[in-house]
Design goal:
Layout lengths: L4 E4 L6 H13 L4 E4 L12 E4 L5 E2 L4 E2 L17 H16 L4 H23 L16 H6 L12 H41 L4 E3 L7 H6 L7 E6 L2 E6 L22 H8 L4 E4 L5 E4 L2 H15 L1
Parallel strand pairs: 1-2, 1-3, 3-5, 6-7
Antiparallel strand pairs: 4-5, 7-8, 8-10, 9-10
Helix pairs in contact: 1-2, 1-5, 2-3, 3-5
């Protein structure tokens, strides 16, 4: 398929067509990206992909708008934005272009669709407020990208286009960073699974480095593991395991007698030479070597039991 033109609307812009453009310009780098509402420009042709404009959703004609009535809906009834439509039809090819391993294409496509694309769809269609698209923060991706639009009293003729093309690499970077994180999580999952198997019935999981581990522990039902340890630079850390991403409560806390102590004071309180630090909230402790952190882990387990 030879695509010579990528066409979206002119004027003000939002996150959905910016991110759609990030996907399509990577897949079709030789195509001209046009921003227009001219009827001739947004008329379908074999060498065009038209999105967020045109009043139709027609895959064969390569037009991906969502403003018409009835508008395209996901299987769960939520509305698509142009980004959701482009991701549905071109997202897998985009992941492949980023060298995502073939076995990870479908799971990463689905995970990104849920975590990243769907909130953009919902905000763009007015289903949720931008502040609801990203945990507790009001600084969400749609807000950040919208902030790159020209100010209201910038009357220059090319203000919208200049801002759009300046924002495009930023949007692309956010999207690629999200994909890199999901790829990293897939690699971490493999390492954590091997470490869980090696740990057996031990209450402590040892990892070769810091990495995401909580979701893998939950998915494998490794509920018996109470602490995780791994090297960090020249030191070693002993970490509690949060019960969920929405709480600071842990499966088990480090000893209360260690809370907030450092160096000699922590060595005295714990009886472990090489103990260096314990956070006042008792979710992490640091030691200067592996032997010391293993000893601290044994003490922590005994206090829990």
């Amino acid at each position: 398929m030879t695509i010579n033109y990528l066409v979206t609307h002119s004027g003000g812009f939002h996150a959905d067509e910016l991110l759609s453009s990030a996907v399509l310009t990577r897949l079709f780098p030789e195509a001209d990206l046009l921003r227009s509402r001219d009827q001739l420009c947004i008329t379908p042709a074999a060498d065009k992909i038209i999105y967020d404009v045109g009043g139709d959703y027609d895959v064969e004609a390569k037009i991906f708008d969502h403003h018409q009535s009835p508008s395209p809906l996901r299987d769960d009834g939520h509305p698509f934005s142009s980004f959701g439509l482009i991701w549905k039809h071109y997202g897998r090819a985009y992941l492949l272009s980023l060298n995502v391993p073939s076995q990870n294409i479908d799971p990463i496509h689905a995970q990104l669709d849920y975590d990243f694309v769907l909130p953009i769809d919902l905000v763009d269609n007015g289903v949720i407020e931008p502040s609801a698209a990203g945990s507790m923060s009001r600084v969400t991706l749609p807000v950040l990208l919208d902030s790159l639009r020209p100010v209201f009293d910038d009357g220059s003729r090319d203000a919208d286009d200049d801002a759009f093309f300046a924002a495009l690499p930023i949007a692309r970077r956010f999207l690629e960073a999200a994909i890199c994180q999901l790829m990293a999580e897939a690699r971490a999952r493999h390492i954590v699974l091997k470490a869980i198997e090696k740990a057996g019935k031990s209450l402590v999981l040892e990892l070769p480095m810091g990495m995401p581990y909580r979701s893998t522990l939950e998915n494998t039902k490794a509920d018996h593991i109470l602490f995780v340890l791994y090297p960090r630079g020249d030191d070693w850390t002993l970490n509690g395991i949060k019960l969920s991403k929405d709480t600071f409560d842990q499966r088990a806390d480090l000893p209360i007698s260690w809370a907030g102590l450092r160096d000699a004071a922590l060595e005295d309180a714990s009886g472990v030479k090489g103990a260096k630090f314990c956070h006042n909230a008792r979710f992490i402790a640091v030691a200067s070597n592996r032997e010391a952190i293993l000893e601290m882990a044994e003490i922590a387990i005994k206090e829990v039991q």
